Automatic annotation (TrEMBL):
InterPro entries: GvpG. Residues 82-104, 112-121 have a biased composition (Low complexity). Residues 60-72 have a biased composition (Basic and acidic residues). It comes from Actinomadura rubrobrunea. This is Gas vesicle protein. Residues 52-121 are annotated as: Disordered.
Length: 121
């Protein structure tokens, strides 16, 4: 960031700080929410409450289903990951094989070379 743009955007620094804090808090909350060890502890708590008679079978099943939905999908039962498709194996797609440039014979700006004497005018 240059000096001028840094000075111009200086009043936005508190907003950027608040956004950064919100992103960090979101990351930590999601890490706790989807932590397998925490989910296992909550599953054990549900089993204990079910055994103690504090909740019934239907409520325990519903809570366990919610917890299982939060577990990350891994292993052979996981959904297939997006891999290279048959289209990707065929090679890159070229929209315009000629391109917007001339053949470079004139040495003009369109070919990436120095401008012609005629185009300086």
């Amino acid at each position: 960031m240059g000096l001028f743009s840094g000075l111009v955007t200086l009043p936005l620094a508190p907003v950027r700080g608040v956004i950064w804090v919100a992103e960090v808090l979101t990351e930590h909350a999601e890490a706790q929410l989807y932590d397998p060890a925490r989910i296992a502890a909550e599953m054990q708590e549900i089993a204990d409450r079910l055994a103690a008679g504090e909740i019934d079978e239907d409520e325990a099943a519903a809570r366990e289903e919610e917890l299982l939905d939060r577990l990350p999908r891994t292993g052979p039962s996981a959904e297939p990951q997006a891999g290279p498709s048959a289209d990707a194996a065929a090679g890159p797609v070229v929209d315009d094989p000629v391109g917007p440039y001339d053949d470079g014979a004139s040495g003009g700006a369109a070919s990436g070379g120095p401008p012609d004497e005629a185009s300086r005018g």
